[in-house]
Amino acid sequence: TDVSQGFDLGSPHLPWDHPFYDIARHQIIEVAGDDNFGRKVIVFSACRLPPQHELDHQKLLMYLKATLDQYVESDYTLIYFHHGLTSENKPSLSWLRDAYREFDRK
């Protein structure tokens, strides 16, 4: 299924009935623009993660992958800011490791 539905998944402005609305509204992942070489810059701001009990981390990973899939045909840069985490919103190290392993070039 195509979950992008013609929307920029890196934008927080998805319709409320979009499958990833509950993730996008936190603005954890943002397409920040292009770098000097024309590559998309995608920013993952961990400080925007809500408390663990309010977020489905597997769905967050699916959202991140769907966002990156929009740019996979070209080079892009993914920046992960780990600052701002607390014991309430910090994803587990195993989740971070598993998320890293999920990424590949199509």
Automatic annotation (TrEMBL):
The gene is ARHGAP1. This is Rho GTPase-activating protein 1. Gene3D superfamilies: CRAL-TRIO lipid binding domain (3.40.525.10). Residues 38-106 form the CRAL-TRIO domain. Pfam families: CRAL_TRIO_2. SUPFAM superfamilies: CRAL/TRIO domain. It comes from the Eukaryota.
